[in-house]
Amino acid sequence: MTPRSMAILFWATGVLAYVVAVFHRQSLGVAGIEAAARLGVGASGLSVLAMCQLLVYAGMQVPVGMLVDRLGSKRMLVLGAVVMACGELVFALSGGLLPGIAGRALIGCGDAMTFISVIRLVGLSFPAHRNPLMVQLTGLFGQLGAIASAVPLIHSLHAYGWTPTFAGAAVVGLVSAFLLVTVLRDARPERTGAPPSLKAAWAEPGTRLGMWTHAATQCSAASFLLLWGYPFLVRGQGLTPATAGVLLTTLTLCGMACGPLLGYLAGRFPFHRSRMVLIVIGTTAGAWTAVLVWPGRAPLWLLVALVVVLAANGPGSMIGFDYARTFNPATRIGAATGIVNGGGFVASVSVIALIGVTLDLMGDNGLDDFRWAFAAQYPIWALGAVQVIRYRGKARRRGLPATSTNS
Predict the structure, then answer these.
(1) Confidence class for position 330, pLDDT limits 50, 70, 90
(2) CB 47, CB 373: distance < 8 Å
(3) What pLDDT is stored for residue 405 in this prediction?
(4) What b-and-e string marks burial along 250-262, b requiring 16 or more CB atoms within 10 Å of the CB?
(5) Rounded (5°) CA angle 394-399-402
(6) CA torsion sign, 235 to 236 to 239 to 244?
(7) Residue 39 in contact with residue 100, Cβ under 8 Å?
(8) Average pLDDT for 243-267
(9) DSSP character for 34?
(10) Of 315, 284, 306, which Cα lies nearest the Cα of 377?
(11) Cα(first)–Cα(last) distance of the chain, in Å?
(12) What is the DSSP code (8-state) at residue 126?
């Protein structure tokens, strides 16, 4: 086998692990109604499940970035796959909130080990000029896991029930770990230089520009996919579970199509990246406004328009990582990337929590309750847009490394 073929094989194995990780990450999103009944919790309890998963994921970003430099991608990918499989098994056997929280926390921990490890694998396996394309393809193929967590998982829950469905998800994780052990080869990296400075990365305005970009653009689609979209479409809008699953899949497919386009535009017009971010925030807020103020249940075409607009959220949030690369030297890219990614998921946790608390306060979980609950997104969008504009100016005044593009 040629070196190029081996590189592709190793990358494909890592991507498969990332696909499985995305599947685990979003498996709660279509099981919200069943989880409430199984675990005996309300909307706030469901929020706690998703919040714990995302908080663990966000909190692990910087430590994982440092560990992967010490242990290598293979070890971290195998460990992540096993931890996520254990989390799904715990979740499958859960009969109350505390075991459910433990299962989702394990999933968040294993998930945090995966993407950064695959990105490092790309950097070691391919020449520098191919890295941007391979990173985009990694994110693109990873969304297949989101598709698998929608319609197929809904069907399995209805056909086989809670425990067989999530136990099966655990088996998928173990198969992924076995493939990583048997196929992937990855040399343990050598230790060089001092560890990256978190303080210096945080002090860089471009890092915080990336963090607020990631936070403001990701939170709506993330909360929709991870937990509240399915209950909103079924209970609030009166759609059948199958139709709701198709809409969630549509969101993911449109995001896969939007990613390369937005990536091309960001690379072709680097001076307009922040404008693209603000357009994503504005169109998201506009689409939600149209749905929330519509008298009665929104027509299907408007809900389709909503998920198409939400599809730009994920690709838009990736611009935040481009800012981390642009405004930081190579010695602290990992730390800056962890800050950007962690900030985005903290924002997503906040939106999930606000929606859940509002639904519990309203009590009925009817359409009007969902309207008030999803209105909790507006302050996050407003704060994010203001901070993007603020740190854009600071980053431009601070200046860039000679090899960087502008914002």
Answers:
(1) low
(2) no
(3) 41
(4) bbbbbbbebbeeb
(5) 155
(6) negative
(7) yes
(8) 84
(9) H
(10) 284
(11) 42
(12) S
Lowest mean pLDDT, pick from 45-49, 133-137, 186-190, 392-396: 186-190
Amino acid letter for position 79: L
* Band of pLDDT at residue 402, cut at 50, 70 and 90: very low
Q: Output the CA torsion 61→67→68→71 (10° steps).
A: -160
pTM for this structure?
0.75
pLDDT single digits (tens) 173-217? 999 999 999 998 875 555 555 555 678 888 899 999 999 999 999
DSSP for 237-265, please give it.
T---HHHHHHHHHHHHHHHHHHHHHHHHH
Residue with the two structure tokens 């499958």: 92
At residue 407, the pLDDT reads: 46
Residue range 283-289: average pLDDT? 97
Q: How many CB atoms lie within 10 A of CB 375?
A: 15
pLDDT above 60 for 403: no
Taking the C-alpha atoms of 148, 149, 150 and 155 in order, what is their torsion angle to the nearest 10 degrees?
90
Q: Does residue 121 carry a pLDDT above 50?
A: yes
**Who's near 180: CB < 8 A, 6+ residues apart?**
13, 14, 17, 74, 77, 78, 81
Question: Three-state secondary structure along 62-118?
Answer: HHHHHHHHHHCHHHHHHHHHHHHHHHHHHHHHCCCHHHHHHHHHHHHHHHHCHHHHH
Burial string for 327-336 (b: 16+ CB within 10 Å, else e) reads bbeeebbbbb
CA–CA separation, 26 vs 31, rounded Å? 9
Angle at 260 between CA 247 and CA 390, to 5 degrees: 90
Q: Are 88 and 166 in contact (CB under 8 A)?
A: yes
Compute how many other C-beta atoms are within 10 angstroms of the C-beta atom of residue 211.
Answer: 27
Residue position matching structure tokens 């070691």: 124
- Give me the count of residues in the chain: 407
Q: Which residue has the higher pLDDT, 67 or 308?
A: 308
Instruction: Return all residues near 119 (Cβ < 8 A) that are at least 6 apart.
Output: 135, 138
CB 229 within 8 A of CB 28: no
Closest among 344, 326, 345, 292 to 406, alpha carbons compared = 326
